[in-house]
From TrEMBL:
Enzyme Commission number(s): 2.1.1.33
Name this protein carries in UniProt: tRNA (guanine-N(7)-)-methyltransferase
Function recorded in the entry: Catalyzes the formation of N(7)-methylguanine at position 46 (m7G46) in tRNA.
Pathway(s) per entry: tRNA modification; N(7)-methylguanine-tRNA biosynthesis
Residues noted as binding substrate in the record, renumbered to the chain: K147, D180, T217, K218, F219, E220
Lineage: Bacteria, Pseudomonadati, Pseudomonadota, Gammaproteobacteria, Vibrionales
GO molecular-function terms, A-Z: tRNA (guanine(46)-N7)-methyltransferase activity
Species of the source: Vibrio cholerae
Length: 239
């Protein structure tokens, strides 16, 4: 999971406070994760700096860029990168053991089209991601903050949707969300339907079947066995 900070505003538009959408969970790296960080970071890690990235310089080609916020331990992200060598992948995650695990998996899988960052996603978006440059933005199983009084902490809010819109390629860029909380899925739809410049890509209702490019996780497989639902949502930037 990644930590994302949003603003809360007064009626006259002044910033009241900053709300964290995710709790920062610092844990100890295993020896394997620590070794992967040391070995792989020089080629696969990107340090935060307030300068726009040049995708050609980052990846060495002009392939489409897929960015994922909060990749957890990185298993799905690595699998996607391995299955789609014609695309470039950037994952942002603040949980350092997850970054280490992702790098270890990427090294084992031999992927070369994956880069990772260990930083707050909003700061990265604000200062490092060029506008109109992302093929896809992925947000899979973010913290649902299921208590009603915590709903304001959910990452999917109008301000966040506008940030995403600016970074997606106009006319083709896609914001792909997935959640196993029906209430959060409904919240995502409600927010995105209000967000200007987006169109829902579902052809039947609000949701889409799980697309082939999103791997089925072990957690998700267990949920299916227990009868739990998963909702995939895709919106395309139109303006």
């Amino acid at each position: 999971m990644s930590e994302v900070i949003t603003q809360e505003y007064t009626e006259d538009g002044k910033v009241l406070r900053r709300i964290r959408s995710f709790v920062r969970r610092e844990g100890r790296l295993t020896k394997g994760q620590e070794a992967a960080m040391k070995e792989c970071w020089p080629t696969m890690g990107i340090d935060y700096q307030p300068e726009l990235l040049d995708w050609q310089q980052v990846f060495g080609n002009d392939n489409p860029v897929v960015l994922e916020i909060g990749f957890g331990m990185g298993a799905s992200l690595v699998e996607m990168a391995k299955n789609a060598p014609e695309k470039n992948f950037l994952g942002i995650e603040v949980h350092s053991p997850g970054v280490g695990a992702c790098l270890a998996s990427a090294r084992e899988a031999g992927v070369t089209n994956l880069r990772v960052m260990c930083h707050d996603a909003v700061e990265v978006f604000a200062h490092m991601i060029p506008d109109n440059s992302l093929h896809t933005l992925q947000l899979f199983f973010p913290d649902p903050w299921h208590k009603k009084r915590h709903h304001k902490r959910r990452i999917v809010q109008l301000e966040f949707a506008e940030m995403v819109r600016q970074k997606l390629i106009i006319g083709s860029g896609v914001f792909h969300m997935a959640t196993d909380w029906q209430n959060y899925a409904e919240h995502m739809i409600e927010v995105m339907n209000q967000a200007p410049g987006f169109a829902n890509l579902a052809t039947d209702g609000d949701y889409i079947p799980r697309p082939d490019e999103r791997p089925l996780t072990k957690f998700e497989q267990r949920g299916h066995r227990l009868g739990h639902g998963v909702w995939d949502i895709k919106y395309q930037r139109t303006a």
